[in-house]
Design a protein that fits this description.
The chain is of the alpha+beta class and about 500 residues long. The protein starts with a strand and ends with a helix.
């Protein structure tokens, strides 16, 4: 294997999160009852005519801009003819001759810090096929046409990948683009983003590409890593034995970690491409492209750099907060509301940013892992989060109460001020009640009091915890500590006088 170089190119399919399908008005939703979202266009019934969904075109242009590609002002659709049970029309509407985007590049960085540039060959719009469910024990296959007509963007790269790490870094970058643009959730395990890996081997130093195989629909980074490792090794063993690589499509078997033949790879002529007769060419005015360009968001890398530069966040904090647009939105909106219009950057906003980042990178990420929740599925709003932080800052609630209420707000859309009042969680200002609680603790915790008086000052921490527990966490920690130390000092003085 060491004498061979791996060469890979990708075909990445992104399902768009538009309200409707690409060529009809059927709902574009995931996990509904089988064959509910279908119509004559989806089912390829005679006389049904497709109409391009303009939302799909906008998504394509914005992704093309993110890829730094050239937007074609005059693209068109073509028919790719093939029969498969989940393809009711017996053809796919795609863009073969005049795709919406040509060229482009994506800068990537692998986990070990290696940077590289991946060239984009093209990106085109097309419709998805349906979904087959096989039941071998019953010797039947069922077809669900809900997915038929779901809009896809297919990104085709140049053969610029040499390692699985580069493939994964590229897919993470594309998924980030899709999420920040708001055009797809990029969930590989649900099929929102799928990757076909074209892999070949050649001897180090050779310029000619070897015969490739295509591994279809890899839907997790783990699968990609395992599939690349197996297929590269399989091809190397064949070449070492003097055998030829067959140009074919293969699937990755999760169970045994091998790739298996699906079919011999088709040639372009097999699809009999020709211009789609039922759709007009797509003409994009320059002002429409410029308008969409003006709506481009700040992507993760730029956002993370700004957080570090303006708000003094660490690289780790910035990376966590920008990993998903929902997390970045919660952070930025909470800071805006809590800072109450303070200009940035100031020491005040930096301090507040650090406080929010600590709560989100700690408690929020812990809750997401514990509850197996995706970012953005939480119920907490920036308004509620800012209110909670303001109450803590003003000394109305303790840090512990703030954290406890934050965990409740993760699952419930509540007004934290109302919740704190209804559950009697406000810090008590009753000095007599606090004094009574301290006296009760000093009486009940005689061993700890003796430890403190004998020089073990850490015992004060235990006693303070007992005071907070006795007041159900409602005592002002600073006031409680001050009063506790005062009374301990009095006891110490009395002991010394007695001696």
């Amino acid at each position: 294997m060491n004498k061979f170089e791996i060469v890979m190119g990708l075909e990445v399919h992104i399902e768009l999160a538009t309200k409707h399908k690409i060529f009809c008005r059927c709902k574009n939703t995931f996990a509904e009852a089988s064959n509910r979202n279908v119509c004559p266009v989806c089912l390829g019934l005679p006389g049904a005519l497709p109409v391009l969904n303009p939302e799909v075109l906008s998504c394509a242009v914005r992704m093309g801009l993110a890829l730094q590609g050239e937007i074609d002002r005059n693209s068109r659709f073509d028919r790719k003819n093939y029969f498969y049970p989940d393809n009711a029309t017996a053809y796919q509407i795609t863009q073969f001759y005049a795709p919406i985007v040509r060229g482009g590049q994506v800068e990537i960085r692998t986990e070990d810090g290696t940077a590289s540039t991946i060239r984009i060959h093209e990106m085109h719009m097309e419709d998805d096929a349906g979904k087959l469910t096989h039941a071998p024990e019953e010797r039947i296959s069922l077809v669900d046409f809900n997915r038929k007509g779901v809009p896809l963007l297919e990104i085709v790269t140049e053969p610029d990948f040499r390692t699985a790490d580069e493939v994964i870094a590229f897919l993470e970058k594309i998924r980030m683009f899709a999420m920040y643009l708001g055009i797809s959730d990029g969930k590989l395990h649900e099929g929102s983003m799928r990757a076909d890996v074209n892999l070949s081997l050649r001897k180090h130093g050779d310029e000619t590409l070897g015969v490739r195989t295509e591994m279809k629909n890899l839907n997790s980074f783990t699968s990609i890593r395992r599939a690349v490792a197996y297929e590269a090794d399989r091809q190397a063993r064949l070449l070492d034995a003097g055998k030829a690589i067959v140009f074919e499509t293969r699937r990755f078997d999760e169970a045994d970690g091998t790739t298996k033949v699906m079919r011999t790879k088709e040639e372009i002529m097999d699809y009999r491409y020709f211009p789609e007769p039922d759709l007009l060419p797509v003409h994009l005015p320059e002002e429409r492209i410029r308008s969409l360009e003006a709506q481009m968001p700040e992507f993760r890398e730029e956002k993370a750099a700004r957080y570090m530069r303006e708000l003094s966040l660490t690289q780790e904090e910035a990376q966590i907060l920008t990993r998903h647009p929902a997390t970045a939105h919660l952070f930025e909106e909470t800071l805006r509301l809590w800072a109450d219009g303070e200009p940035t950057p100031t020491e005040g906003t930096r301090r507040k940013a650090k406080t929010i980042a600590a709560r989100m990178c700690g408690d929020l990420m812990y809750l997401c892992r514990e509850k197996k929740a995706d970012p953005g599925t939480w119920k907490i709003t920036p308004e509620a989060f800012a209110t909670l932080l303001r109450m803590q800052e003003d000394g109305e609630i303790t840090t512990k109460t703030a954290r406890d209420v934050f965990a409740i707000l993760f699952d419930k859309n509540l007004d934290p001020m109302v919740y704190v009042n209804e559950n009697h969680l406000l810090i008590t200002k009753d000095e007599d009640a606090l004094a009574a609680a301290v006296d009760a603790v000093l009486k009940a915790q005689e061993p700890s009091v003796s430890d403190y008086l004998s020089g073990k000052e850490k015992a004060a921490g235990h006693l303070l915890g007992c005071v907070m527990k006795a007041t159900n966490g409602q005592a002002d920690p600073q006031a409680a500590r001050k009063l506790l130390l005062k009374k301990l000092a009095q006891l110490k003085a009395e002991n010394e006088t007695t001696e």
